[in-house]
Amino acid sequence: MADTMQFDLVSPERRLASLRVSAVRIPGADGDMTAMPDHAPVITTLRPGVLHVEGPEGTAEYVVSGGFAEINATSLSVLAEKAIPLNEVTRAHIDEMIEDARAAHEAAKETFKNEPGPVDDAAKLLADMVAMGDHINV
Amino acid sequence: MPSLKDLKNRIESVKSTRKITKAMQMVAAAKLRRAQESAEQSRPYTERFNAVMGQLAASVGGSDSAPKLLSGTGSDQVHLLIVMTAERGLCGGFNSNIAKLARIKAGELIRAGKTVKILTVGKKGRDALKRDFRDKFVGHVDMTEIKRVAYSDAQSIAKDVLARFDAGEFDVATIFYSKFVNVVTQNPTAQQIIPAAFEAPEGAEASTIYDYEPDEEAILADLLPRGVATQIFAALLENGASEQGARMSAMDNATRNAGEMIEKLTIEFNRSRQAVITNELIEIISGAEAL
């Protein structure tokens, strides 16, 4: 069994990381999961959270929001709309993201008065954002 | 025959024009490098994204419950043309080529009896299309303040477009932008973004069977709106690089033309100066002979 796999973290604006890793903890939409080499192929959407990367050269953490991860036996690609190394995150980043989520939630409440689906989704997104902010605690 | 002073002034003015075009060319070259870098850096994201979307679309696309963004509204009566151009001129045929393509396409659609709506991004495209399609404009996005295109800019355009789509304002959306090939070639391109058309990945990749979490349709519903933003972002970056490339080669031409003009004017200037000297000499000599 291979003990490392290729890990790519890309956002639309740049490639944040491309290296060999041994395990990555992904904040999946249905719950956190850890991907290691020889994982079964999975595509999952992300919820706002912290991506925890473990590799031969140490660990790294990124705050990610929106997007998806593509996992297969030899590689893992995370495509996130927003991705910031954890140590560069400031309260302002979090507040901005929470503010965006709140605005989206309000907008959803306006547009989809009779459909609970999108409103619940937006509410969940908002809750996830707040939870992430509390979790990181910067 | 212009006087010596006129010629001299003329040469001076062309010289300062050349200085300006030379400076613009150098600025464009520097900006081009930056624009190309950003375009390059966004490419891995776009490529992966499209590959995954292609897979998903292939597996869900056939079903009736496929999202509207993928399968369309079932009609193609109302077309939204999103025309993306630069905010500034002096970049050769860049803006007018995009506007021309949009104009041809709009004309075709109108002749076919479709309704056309136009959303402009960038001032120059708006100016170019104003005369023929003023009544078709539904919106304009101003990019003057934006020095460097960020993903959030594409997101806000996408949000606007998606809101219009949800409100049933149009059935098909097409973006017009210029693809950057190299400094001398930029191809004006029309690309349909709604309903989304993803190229299915070929061969080996397609054979991997993925598990989807949550399920395929939920992922697709989540990702399709992001796909619109991604494509708009990619188009904005291509456009940025194309604009600078077009400006660079236009200014290079202008600089060269100014150089040629200066040479020509200098020759003319020297000739007429020679003629004046000869004239004076003849006058002196004939004056001396008369004594």
TrEMBL record, chain A:
Q: How does it assemble?
A: F-type ATPases have 2 components, CF(1) - the catalytic core - and CF(0) - the membrane proton channel. CF(1) has five subunits: alpha(3), beta(3), gamma(1), delta(1), epsilon(1). CF(0) has three main subunits: a, b and c.
Q: Which PANTHER family match?
A: ATP SYNTHASE DELTA/EPSILON CHAIN, ATP SYNTHASE EPSILON CHAIN, CHLOROPLASTIC
This protein's record includes keyword Transport: yes
Query: Membrane topology per the record?
Result: Peripheral membrane protein
Q: Which CDD domains match?
A: F1-ATPase_delta
Residue ranges annotated for the ATP synthase F1 complex delta/epsilon subunit N-terminal domain, each copy included: 5-83
Its primary localisation, in coarse terms, equals membrane
**Which Pfam family is an annotated match for this chain, by its short name?**
ATP-synt_DE_N
Main function = Produces ATP from ADP in the presence of a proton gradient across the membrane.
Gene3D superfamilies from the UniProt entry = F0F1 ATP synthase delta/epsilon subunit, N-terminal (2.60.15.10)
Where does it reside? Cell membrane; Endomembrane system
Protein name, UniProt field:
ATP synthase epsilon chain
* InterPro entries with a match to the protein in the record: ATP_synth_F1_dsu/esu, ATP_synth_F1_dsu/esu_N, ATPsynth_dsu/esu_N
Q: Which gene encodes it?
A: atpC
- Keyword terms, alphabetized: ATP synthesis, Cell membrane, CF(1), Hydrogen ion transport, Ion transport, Membrane, Transport
Please name the source species.
Sedimentitalea xiamensis
- What family does the Swiss-Prot or TrEMBL record give for this protein? Belongs to the ATPase epsilon chain family.
Automatic annotation (TrEMBL), chain B:
Bilayer-crossing residues are none
Q: What is its main location?
A: membrane
Which top-level group of life is the source organism from?
Bacteria
One Pfam family per UniProt: ATP-synt
Q: What does the UniProt entry say about where the protein is found?
A: Cell membrane; Membrane
Gene3D superfamilies documented for this protein: 3.40.1380.10, ATP synthase, gamma subunit, helix hairpin domain
Q: Which keywords does this chain's UniProt record carry?
A: ATP synthesis, Cell membrane, CF(1), Hydrogen ion transport, Ion transport, Membrane, Transport
Check the record and name the PROSITE patterns matching this protein.
ATPASE_GAMMA (PS00153)
Q: How does it sit in the membrane?
A: Peripheral membrane protein
What InterPro entries does this protein map onto? ATP_synth_F1_ATPase_gsu, ATP_synth_F1_gsu, ATP_synth_F1_gsu_CS
Q: Briefly state the protein's biological role.
A: Produces ATP from ADP in the presence of a proton gradient across the membrane. The gamma chain is believed to be important in regulating ATPase activity and the flow of protons through the CF(0) complex.
Q: Which NCBIfam families match?
A: ATPsyn_F1gamma (TIGR01146), PRK05621.1-4 (NF004146)
Assembly and partners are described as: F-type ATPases have 2 components, CF(1) - the catalytic core - and CF(0) - the membrane proton channel. CF(1) has five subunits: alpha(3), beta(3), gamma(1), delta(1), epsilon(1). CF(0) has three main subunits: a, b and c.
Family membership noted in the UniProt record: Belongs to the ATPase gamma chain family.
Q: What is this protein called?
A: ATP synthase gamma chain
Annotated organism of origin:
Sedimentitalea xiamensis
Provide the taxonomic classification.
Bacteria, Pseudomonadati, Pseudomonadota, Alphaproteobacteria, Rhodobacterales
Q: Which gene encodes it?
A: atpG
